[in-house]
Amino acid sequence: MEHKPGSFPFPVDGETIRQVKDIIGRFVHTIAAMRLYPFGHINVTKFRDNLYHRLTSFLEEKGEFEIEIKENVFIFAGGIVFQEDSGIKSLPFLYFNEGMRALTFIPGLTREELYDFLEITANFAERPTGESDLIEELWERDFEFIRYDAAEGFLEAKVAAGLEGRPLELQVDRNQLFSGRIRLDTEDQAAANARSQEVSRTLSKDAAGLANFFETFDRTDQSSLESMVTAEHDVSSDKEFIETVFEVLYLEDRQDKFVEILGYLESYLQQLFKRADLGNAVLLLNSMSDLQKALRSSSPVRSEALLKTIREITLEADIGVIREIARPERVDDPRTLYEFLAWLGPRMLPIGTDVFESSSESSWHEAGVEYLRIMIRDHPAETVAMAQSRKPDLTKTLIALLGEQDDKKAVLQLANFAKSEHSEIRLEAVRTLGTLSHDIARKLILEYLNDPDERVRIEAGRAARLDTDERALAQVLQIIQGKAFLARSSIERGTLLLAVGRSNTAEAAEALKNLVRKRRLFGRERLQETRLLAVAGLAAMKIPAAREALQAGSQVGNQAVATACAQALRKRADRRREDA
Amino acid sequence: MNDEKDLSFSHQAAYDILYRLYVVLKIAKIHDANNANFQDQAQTLINALKGPLRRQGRLLIQVRRNAFFINFNRVRFHYSDFHINKSLLAEFARREVGTLTLSEGLDGAELSRFIVLLTRQDPHSRLTFEEFQAAVLTEDFPHVTLEKADKIDFNATKEKRNRLATQTYFLGIAHLKELSKTEERVSSIHVTKLWIQTIFNHLIDDEAFLYGLTNIKNHDEYTLNHSVNVCILSMALGRRLGLSNRELMELGIGAFLHDLGKIEIPDAILNKPAQLTPDEKKLMDQHARFGATHMLRIQGDKSFSGKALAVAFEHHYKANKDNWSPFRRKPNATLFSRIVKIADYFDAITTRRVYRPRAFTREEALNIMIQNKDAEFDPLIFKVFVAMLGVFPIGSLVVCDTNEIGIVIEANPHPSMAQRPVIKLITDHEGRKIDGQTVDLMEIDPDTHRFTRTIVKTLDPEKYGIRIPDYILAQAAAEEAPVN
Ligand SMILES: [Fe+2]
Ligand SMILES: [Fe+2]
Predict the structure, then answer these.
(1) Are residues B405 and B458 in the same domain?
(2) Are residues B150 and B172 located together in one domain of the fold?
């Protein structure tokens, strides 16, 4: 960009130069302050506002503020207005090095634009070289009132190698262009003549074939085009990248290239990690496994290479890095985060379970349950090991999920919880075991019949299948006949006696009959209650032995017990009639 | 300044004023001041001006770097009314006006008189700004002031600008050559981006000249030259569609590198003067994918541009999905690929190749593309493309009803007048080659009240040994002053 003093629309006098120097000084200081102080610091805002005022009043008065950029200096009207020789720390150098040769502020400059410009410059100066592209960032911001020029000379120097010493411009021989003669051939001449005649008659309405295509855009066209472009604004370049690369990979049958591209993808994934872009990370990982499946039979070698890459990614992911990026506030959709963690396998369980335990919102809870379901299915031991008394929510969910499995492995996992010192967890475990049909589950339930916590024992009593499981029945009968039984709460006693009744076995009827008829000197009240509960147990029984037991009970001397038995008998008779 | 006074303007109001101005100027060029239509439109314009003039006292209509500002508010144009911007710019440039200030008190009569003066055809040679300003002062326009455009608005001379654009054009070729040769990853993507910004700035400065440059074809280094042309045409198209700067950059990179994969195709196949065997064709068809892989390599770890990558990969995808890959997730080719596909096709068939001994003229090419449009292209984008190039695309060799032969160097900004572009005459009416005038086919003969010249036929330049690019380049070389 060359500058001729005097080509300015205003006189360049001493006062003007002084003003320019002042503004440039403030400009440089503001950027320095922005690099020094945190965003929004008073020093920064003060400098910035001052600069804005000086600059805009200059623009109002003079119309434009243009400086030329040389290696270490800013130049105005041919004279140096700022110099800084300290190499990479120098602002002129920073711009110069990026190819900028002139910087112009135009009237109308808004605060927003000026501040953005300062910020982009300051941020760029902070970053290590090669990390970003100043020219690109400025370009993307698309300033209206700030213009910068990147000189062709800069490009030329950069491209010099490609020029191979040849001159840039084609030499044009003007003599050759503008001498000689063109004679139309007969065909062209005839066509031209015919058309000329037409033209002289009509004042020229061209009827070229193309012109027909030339109607202007109607409303539908216009709105279709607009929505097409708007839709494009929303398509992320990352998504486009991932989808394209996988299509390329699918078609790439040269193994070395295939592996090379996988390498690019791995470093790209690291970039996504850096940017905490979990959505695209998941898209990439899913695409990998899709492609792996698609190639499995047609191209085992490529499929194997993919598997290897997937394994590397999951094994090598740094748990510290992942913990940093896998934070709920980073994603809109909880499923994205969990899907991401699921992808990276069991090593990320501590992160996933921490997130699960700390989020209470329902969408998060649901997504978390889905995550744990997948993890339990694929890595049961590692996942169950995450259960801790500190995380009751997690543990209960894990137990419930194990229940869904209903196989031996799951049941054995559940057994671990029988030993938990947390009664809540034991309670959840026995409840879940009760829903399972597996033999081992039934056996496990029995261990809870003598649990220190009453709620657990009650649950175990309910869950035990006394009708088909002789061992269980024997154990329960032993309990109800034991001395300690009377000491248990009425609910527990009631639950067990009812369970015994429902077993519908002769032994059970016998045991209940004995209880009904039991007499004792001490603790009469408790015994009385127990006897009545035993009547209820008998009442629930559907075998003839129960009726006999109740008849025997209706003869006892205790009025209340006898009446209860008689009532139960009547109910049985009613029920039978209805059944018949 | 805009802190103290409220100069804010709704974009619609600003656009409205420029639109009205455009209509009035257009009519003024064809009719005189007594024409009822002209009077009506002048009145509509004054009505649009009144409110803002009352509120803000004055209206500054400014041209800065080919953009319009009204009281410092930039007015943006969309593809469908791009011609309005172009046409108004041409009026301002013709008179070298940088700022037109209208102040409160302006009425319909004064405005009409001014419009007539502004659009009047100067009797002999064109008036300089100073002469025109003198005319404005003598004829007494109390509410109209003019300021000359400063050097930046219509930067340097046209020739110098053309020379810089040409230089940039060839730098692009050199740069791409370097990129194509490099086997290792290089970090030259920065240079590519800088080049794209520079060429794009030239495109904004002088679209017509850039289109002219795309007539340059280099048969030895076909792909390099072709890529630069495709990049220019694609970005011009993207700009009309209203893409953001960020998007234009990705589009530009994709278009610039779209055929990079051809470096893996042996020259014997690339330049085979006969039809390719099925195997050769199969290999040739893979250049798009090879190109994508090369782009990955060039971009290295630093910055992946997904859309640019998609352009390289998809630029031969047909709109009818005939040749799509089976492992495809996307329902459509990306918008950028659809843009580049059109530019690519156009540039390819207008180039002579060993297997295509005669290149289609630009007009023929558009006609062929219209025939294939449904299978090959996105029909809407294609429509914008045709509108952009015009009935007689820049670089067309044409003969007029005067028997003079000329080369189209600028499209007519009014779509309805597309058959009346600006041409540079290269022969007189007897076919003698001359370094002729640049003439606007809108020009009306004052005696007959008819158009002075009308195109009656396009010619195949090759048939007459005319090398169009040389004439385009001659525009850049017209001024013999040394660079800098
Ligand atoms: Fe291609
Ligand atoms: Fe191509």
Answers:
(1) yes
(2) no
Task: Look at A233 and B289 and tell me if their CB atoms are within 8 Å.
Answer: no
The answer to the question of residue B481 being in a domain is no
Q: What domain count does chain B have?
A: 3
Ligand (nearest to CA of B314): 1
Give the tokens for residue A40: 């929004």
pTM for this structure?
A: 0.73
Per-residue pLDDT of chain B (484 residues; tens, 9 = 90+): 333 445 567 778 888 899 899 888 888 877 777 888 888 889 999 999 988 888 888 888 988 766 788 887 777 776 566 678 778 888 888 888 888 999 999 998 999 999 988 888 776 667 788 888 888 888 889 999 988 876 544 444 567 778 878 888 888 888 888 888 765 445 567 788 888 988 988 888 788 899 999 988 877 778 889 999 999 999 999 998 989 888 999 999 999 999 999 988 888 888 888 888 999 988 988 999 999 988 888 765 556 688 999 999 999 887 777 767 777 777 788 899 999 999 999 999 988 776 777 788 888 888 889 888 888 899 899 988 988 888 888 999 999 999 999 999 988 877 777 888 999 999 999 999 998 888 888 887 777 777 889 999 999 998 898 989 888 888 776 544 333 3
> Which of chain B's residues have a Cβ under 8 Å away from the Cβ of A185?
463
The angle that helices B158-181 and B189-205 make with each other, rounded to 10 degrees, is 150
From B338, B364, B389, the end of a domain falls on: B389
Of all residues in chain A, the one with the smallest CA distance to B363 is: A210
Buried b (16+ CB within 10 A) or exposed e, A449-476: bebeeebbbbbbbebbbbeebeebbebb
**Ligand 2 center–CA A430 separation, angstroms:** 70
Tell me which of B361, B389, B417 is where a domain ends: B389
CATH of the domain at B364: 1.10.3210.10
Closest partner residue to B198 among A130, A155, A222, by Cβ?
A155
Least CB–CB distance from B164: residue in A152, A204, A206: A152
Chain-chain contact of B167 with A130 (C-beta, under 8 angstroms) = no
Distances (CA, A) of A433 to A370, A383, A461, B303: 21, 18, 12, 54
Could you tell me the residue range of the domain that residue B66 belongs to? 2-154
Domain boundaries, chain A: 14-161, 250-316, 485-580
Q: Which residues of B touch A229 (CB under 8 A)?
A: 241-243, 335
Residues from chain A contacting residue B197 (CB–CB below 8 Å) = 135, 139, 150
Whole-complex ipTM: 0.73
CB contact under 8 A, B431 and A245: no
